[in-house]
Amino acid sequence: MKIALMDSGIGLLPAAAAMRRLRPDADLVLSSDPATMPWGPRTPEDVTGLALGCARAAAAHRPDALIVACNTASVRALPALRAELEPGLPVIGTVPAIKPAAAGGGPIAIWATPATTGSPYQRGLIRDFAGGVEVTEVPCPGLADAVQHADNEGIDAAVAAAAARTPRDVTTVVLGCTHYELVADRIRTAVQQPDAPPIVLHGSAGAVAAQALRRIGADPFPPDGPVTPGGLTVILGGREATLPEVALTYAEGVQLAPVAPTRA
């Protein structure tokens, strides 16, 4: 089994690590183009072109499924990706986990990039899945870029600014950008109020990994017995490379690296 994931940068790591946990025997193909980040401020046409480039580079490795592990690409480019690649290659998009968050009640905060915050797409998800629940949309300028570069001071500043915009009575935070899942613990700490119940965070990585397996009719766990660890192929800007050093500053990157060496 081979599963490909694409994103502008290292935001694909949480979904890749989730897939590795579900199917440690699966080969993974990680395709990104960090030199073109950020994608959020770009036009829909630009995002679609960049996403297609990452997807085509991944598809050349003949995966069984492609996970679009990027909220911006899912919003702007998913129809174009599916039109080109399906039905031969199932394409799984990433949707902010507003529906499961709303099922637990509220109030809810949705942390997302400035481009996504207030967008018709996000407002539609709130309307469809969070009716009757108090929802606050929280823009997080600079957070994805800081995470991409493991800029700890930048991460702390962006998280603190977003936490200041988050109502104190919020019980649940939706992480509306895949990069944010890499610093989930720091977000939880910043939002948690003293003497309040533990904040619930909702990301998308586990759900999209499970959905990819469902799309190809695969069980979430390998059969009993010895498991041969799956391989890892990294593609940066359309060319095979090694896992970027910045990825190893996050637990999800470390989970991927020891399983098999990247192929150059």
Biggest sheet features: 7 strands, mixed
Beta-strand residue fraction: 15-25%
End-to-end separation in angstroms reads 20 Å
Summarize the amount of helix as a percent range.
25-40%
Number of helices: 10
Elements, N to C (H/E):
EHEHEHEHEHEHHEHEHEEHE
Average the pLDDT over all residues and give the rounded result: 93
Topology, number of strands: 11
Shape: globular
Class by SSE composition = alpha/beta
- Please give the radius of gyration in angstroms: 18 Å
**Which stretches are poorly predicted, pLDDT < 50 over at least 5 residues?**
259-264
InterPro entries: Asp/Glu/hydantoin_racemase, Asp/Glu_race, Asp/Glu_racemase_AS_1
Keywords: Isomerase
Protein name: Aspartate/glutamate racemase family protein
Short description:
With 264 residues, the chain is an alpha/beta fold. The chain has helices spanning 13-22, 44-59, 71-85, 98-103, 120-129, 143-148, 152-164, 184-191, 205-215, 251-256, and strands at residues 2-7, 27-32, 65-68, 91-92, 108-112, 135-139, 172-175, 200-202, 232-236, 239-241, 262-263.
List strands and helices in order, with pairings:
Blueprint: E1 2-7, H1 13-22, E2 27-32, H2 44-59, E3 65-68, H3 71-85, E4 91-92, H4 98-103, E5 108-112, H5 120-129, E6 135-139, H6 143-148, H7 152-164, E7 172-175, H8 184-191, E8 200-202, H9 205-215, E9 232-236, E10 239-241, H10 251-256, E11 262-263
Description:
This protein is 38% helix and 17% strand. The strands form two sheets. Strands 1, 2, 3, 4, 9, 10 and 11 form a seven-stranded mixed beta sheet that branches. Strands 6-5-7-8 form a four-stranded parallel beta sheet. The two termini are 20 Å apart. It is globular, with a radius of gyration of 18 Å. With 264 residues, the chain is α/β, with parallel strands linked by helices. The longest helix is centred in the N-terminal third of the chain and has 16 residues, at 44-59. Mean pLDDT is 93; it is low at 259-264.
